[in-house]
User: Which sequence fits this backbone?
């Protein structure tokens, strides 16, 4: 399915905060919300999940977003105009080049592709790494 839409999946190394910090925060928040409910029926879980999404995305501002909500940041983003096929081809070429350049001791599954995706995203200004996120 992801290939049909031109989606490239960017996975980082396990336990690497710059990749998983946001996901870990989401999991912690969602677990806290759902644990407070206790055991619920599936219909109630649907209602609560919708309320949770609204609260976390539309109501609660985040320090890491300049005290804006995720929804407001998403709505202000510039339109993305990208030739996904050309982008995918560029990543494929970078990946192949990296596979040839990496020493055998540096190779692990997915490393070259991850680095290729990161480089292509960074070159376009779509991936910006910064320290922090603390408030």
Assistant:
């Amino acid at each position: 399915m992801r290939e049909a839409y031109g989606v490239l999946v960017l996975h980082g190394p396990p336990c690497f905060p710059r990749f998983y910090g946001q996901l870990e925060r989401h999991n912690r928040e969602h677990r806290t919300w759902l644990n407070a409910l206790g055991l619920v029926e599936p219909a109630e879980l649907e209602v609560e999940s919708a309320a949770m999404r609204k609260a976390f995305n539309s109501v609660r501002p985040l320090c890491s977003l300049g005290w804006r909500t995720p929804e407001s940041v998403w709505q202000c983003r510039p339109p993305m105009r990208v030739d996904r096929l050309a982008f995918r081809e560029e990543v494929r070429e970078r990946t192949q080049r990296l596979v040839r350049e990496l020493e055998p001791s540096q190779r692990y599954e997915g490393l070259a592709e991850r680095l290729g995706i990161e480089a292509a995203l960074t070159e376009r200004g779509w991936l910006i790494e910064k320290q922090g996120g603390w408030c």
Observations:
- The first helix runs from residue 17 to 37.
- The radius of gyration is 19 Å.
- The chain has two domains: 12-77, 81-125.
